[in-house]
Fold these 2 entries.
Entry 1:
Amino acid sequence: MSHEKRTSADFFKQVFGRTVTVKLHNRTEYIGVLAALDGNMNIVLEQCEEYLESKLINKYGQILLRGNNVLYISAKFNQTKQQDVEI
Amino acid sequence: MTTILPLGLLDKAISSRVWILMKDDREFEGTLRGFDDFFNMVLENVIELDNGKKSKLESILLNGTQICLIVPGGEIR
């Protein structure tokens, strides 16, 4: 392969310990520090905030998300808190 | 006539923009960095369109289970 291909395994390695946003299929978002991630996209987040429609509804010290519910895992590499940006 | 397999087409699209339609009328457009056999995708500089609302994401791992359609070189309209 001539391109530099970043697979999901590479993405996993890059995001450990970072603050990520996990969005579920039901539009709920969780912003927290990624503690664990497996091949089924099961996720453990720490110091996690739960948002629905951009409103904070809950905070958790540690949370386990079942991977079948996950739509995407989003990371920012300059470590500022992720906010949705209206275009 | 050479055979092109679906994942082969996706491989050709790496490093270019792709437009992804999900089953529930959500759309993503981003630069394809990688993918796997389950269609999980790593995208960068992503625009997410959900219920008419657009947002920007720097780098995401998109779960492949809900992906419906992928357009290489396409964009959200």
Entry 2:
Amino acid sequence: MLYIATVASRGPAALPGRRCVRGAWGRLGAMGDESVPYLLGEGTTKTYQIPISHLDYKFIEKCTDVKHLEKILRVLRSGEEGCYPELTLACEKRIECLDPRSRALRKEKPAATASDFTAEEWEAIHSELMSWLTEMNEDYKKSQLLRTDTLNERQDNLPPIRCSSSCLPTSQNKKLQNKQRSKKSIPRDYSEWDKFNVEKECSKIDEDVEESNSKARFSSRTSLPMIEKKIDTTGMTKREKIFIATREKEKGNEAFATGDYVEAVTYYTRSISVIPIAAVYNNKALAEIKLQDWDSALQDCEKVLDMEPGNIKALMRRATVHSHLQNYQAAIEDLNNVLSVEPENSRAKKNLLEIEEKLKGLKPISEPQGKGKKILIEEIEDSESGEGRGEDTEECERHGGDKTSAAPAAARAAAGEPAMGNAHRKSHGKGKAHDRDTRKHKDGAESGAKKGATEKKAEKLLSDHEGEVNGYLRSDEKSESAEAEEIKAHGEGSRSAAGDSSTSLPPTAAKLKSEGNELFKSGQFGEAVLKYSEAIEYVTGLGEQNPDDLSILYSNRAACYLKEGNCSDCIQDCNRALELQPFSLKPLLRRAMANESMERYRQAYIDYKTVLQIDSSIQAANDSANRITKTLIDQDGPSWREKLPPIPVVPVAAQIHRWDGGAPTSEKKPNTVDISREEPLQMNREEAMEEFKRLKNEGNELVKTGEYEEAANKYSECMKLNTEEYSVYTNRALCYLKLYKYEEAKRDCDHVLQIEDSNIKAFYRRALAYKGLQNYEASVDDFNKVLQIDPNVLEAQKELEEVTQLLHLDTSAGDDNQQMQGKKITIQEVVTDGQEEGTPEDAETARVAAEEAVAKAEARPCPERLRVSAPSNAYDFGQMVNAVNATKDKAACADLLTLTEPKRLPVLLSNKLEGEILLVFIQSLEHYVAGKDPGLAYQHLFYLSKAERFKVVVALLSKNEKEEVQQLFDVLSESQSDQYSLEDLESLKKVYEL
Amino acid sequence: MSAAGLERPQVVSHVQQALSYTVFDCKWVPRSARLLCLGSAARGTGLVQLYELHGARLELLREIEKPKPIKCGTFGATSLQQRYLATGDFDGNLNIWNLEAPEIPVYSVKGHKEIINSIDGVGGLGIGEGAPEIVTGSRDGTVKVWDPRQNDSPVANMEPVQGESKRDCWTVAFGNAYNQEERVVCAGYDNGDIKLFDLKTMSLRWETNIKNGVCSVEFDRKDINMNKLVATSLEGKFHVFDMRTQHPTKGFASVSEKAQKSTIWQVRHLPQNRDIFMTSGGSGSLHLWKYEYPAQRSKKDSEGSEMGVAGSLSLLQNVTLSTQPISCLDWSPDKKGLCVCGAFDQTVRVLIVTKLNKI
């Protein structure tokens, strides 16, 4: 009632009172709507003419127009319609909720007082100030005493006085002195300032300096910010040094925060030059990590650890550096140290897991001799993310051709190609082309390659750290750096060995092109475009066209356009390049990227798919295709595929062609290809290949879902089509191992080893097979061979130990063996999933098997693929679900769900069901299970709804999450299964509150 | 108050000290808990008062009276050991004082014909590479750069063409002093002009007009490759320029914000964090701001030249301390969050801004 008393007397006589009462009701949460409406809705406020009815809780609560609310607030605050503190507050809250930055919310506020803080805070503020004060006052007195002659000393170090500096050369000095004097008599006005020709003056100064040959201070014109790395600290007290060091650190931190890492490193260095502080070294190390200056970062981390052994941050950072330097063991050690201090450090855990996976992933790769090299190089190619491949391969082939063909071809091969180095690298890697006389090429290229690899890894890890950035752009950058390396390698090579190198491009064009390449490398894309355009003009002007070179020029120009964001020109150039040189990878990729950035996802998807058909190992294309798939699903719903233009099938000839430098084309350039040109024989072969590819793919899929029996069948069918592919044999061996058919597994491995006597996988699997057959001696033998080939295979080491033990304890073998099989299988799974494509024999097939890319892409987002085994109890299950949930690894979750009996779900979940877990389940069911086995998905959904807490969790699902569930149901209703009917589905939908 | 509200920095008025004269400028003495108040006594003389902060009160240590009212002062060009104060007065004199022996200035020059409105120093206190220099801006329209080692004449002088109307220069600031050669001076005028003079090349590097008189300009830091510039204006708006990228025609990108309806007298960046600054207003209010950088600080325009991208501003806190304008403001270089301001209600206030670490 006090409230009513505050009502102002202004305004329509009856209204304020009524409104106020209403306001009071609203505040109390009572009814009252019906009783008053007839009184409202008449009249408007004086300012802004807002209907009086808007000055109401209900209206304000519903209103979303911030501008209007701000007006209401102003009216309310002015008090011209009466004073309603509660309503004003409600209005403020509403605005704050809609737009927290609204200016209307800014109120005049008095300074904070003790009442705004808790007693402890207030105390803390004061005691902090007091301690500072005492410190300062003491310091002041001390400095008074210390006041000495250091001042003069310091003054000597000061730079000269501007313009009349004594250290300037006399001639110049005079000039400047004159200037000075004239300045005094005739003041230098603004217009004069404007007219002052800086360049001229500076060059004048430069000349003067040269003439007089003395050291002038003001003459050095540094265009780049040159910051002194050291600070002169003569005559400073310790406190002053701390003060300065802290400030430099702050400057470094600020620069770091804005992403100027170079600047940050400079300021940290300055800070360290005054007083070395561990924290500053630590920050500097982080900035250097961002700059990928691993060596310096390592040094700095070590300095920190010298000063403060056990510094967690430094350890974490050193681990990062080690892992980038591929020094995985050291990285693991550091992370373990971190975990020993902070066992709960989730980042350390995650990194550790990643690195361990990586370590494992590296193992089989570092096979001996040519083999190992080959794999390494293959990897790098992947890491180049495809960009920069098409032409390289062409070059490679051409170069190979040189050996046999005559001089003109040789000339062509040596054409001023940026990809030259790469070509050599590749031929070397394949071990097919033996060009001894170009050793330098190889070296250059290889070092480039290694560098490329490290950079790639670096990028990858960094992006891991920084979360999901645009991986696509990154990969692009990556390839650029790789390209740059190539160019360098080529430069060296051509100088040393290319006496015979002339180019198929006319020298002028070649020169223009290489200039263009240089500009591109240095990031001057605009200028590079000009150079390429000139080159193109020149070449086309000559009439006698060389489609290859012209295509490359177009493709390069397209790259520049892409960099500049000029997508339409990029697409045009790509089209031209593809007309001239159908099925070149680079233009296809670039066109895809351009299309993607123009949000023409369908075209982009088609291009990526085409690229993948030509070469399935291109990571960037894989990633992008996946990403676009998601976008298209979002856009078009589950039936997105129907809206796609048909994906051009790249004939096998094209894939083989790829190595020949040419390629067939896609449907997008209708006038360039006609498939009928291909010989029927090739068509047959193509079909066979397709079939083979399909079967193998299906086999791989089945392995992933754990259906080994069927997988083995598929592989067997594969073998009928192509007996040469030993990867199929090793894969089938794996299936047999899982099915405990050791004899068959052994046979497959034997077969492979007959063809290739150093296949590490075959050895490993045969060893496991022997172990299963309890032929421990043979098993030990095979494990030893594995370790001979690559001593770093941890699994093999482990297994070897176990088997040796078994050999000794032959009596208890039976029991142990049983256990071990379980273990063995989990390990196997990791090996297969992670690496199927990375190994040499598979890599070859992978090229042909374009579709495999999809499978790989599915597996790839989770490099640290979780090991999943059938859960035995709720605890096991909970652990696995948590792991899956932490990484959002849907593939692993799908595995888990396939392994789990739906009926047991409620028991296994017990009361642990949460929104996040449900979501992960739903997503993995949708993406991985529903397609293959809708029945199983339905069962899971059904039993999920029986789990404890299900009702609560479903009730709390957000709108987006509900949509996910809806999508899953859509998928299920589209695909049929005998396990459920549409009615079942409908009723289940209701349970899920859809 | 909401939880979010508590997390924001709070401004606490720690000490209020009433003065018997009009205060124009107040400054912390570097490396100490002392502060100076500069102003004009009722009888038309200049006053310098040295206070020391003792707990919750200010103790007057020394009072120095000079013939002319003192408008502005700086420690920017002195060494950390000497801590000589440079002042500009109503008569256009630039003086440098040793506060231990303030009877005779250590340096004195009649620099301008009229009042020196603003003064700034660089190269001292370990802030800024290169020679110690002082810049003064005056009602006579000139901006002059002085080296305390050179008597009588400025080392650089910037003034309008003879005959052209002289604009009152209200504010000056040094910047870009990240190495021995580079240095710029920024000056703001009563007609809204902002001019950026490059002292290395002796040229006018950039100019713009913000329509209303420029009350205060300051770089976020003087001793780095120039990063940001804040310019406040007469009608309550202020502009933040991103000084990293200069477009050939468009100059520097900027964002503007209206703090209040009255003049913004001063802007001062937190010495410990360049992205936080405080503005003081004609209505006796203080606003604490934070500049947030955009994701990309520069982009290419259609012709391929780099142009800057301005970030955004968020208001961290605002308080109203007085009904009179707050004319001067200074952060303690030594204690983060400690701040002094002087208002025309003849009061200096020592403020504590809390939770600056958490931003």
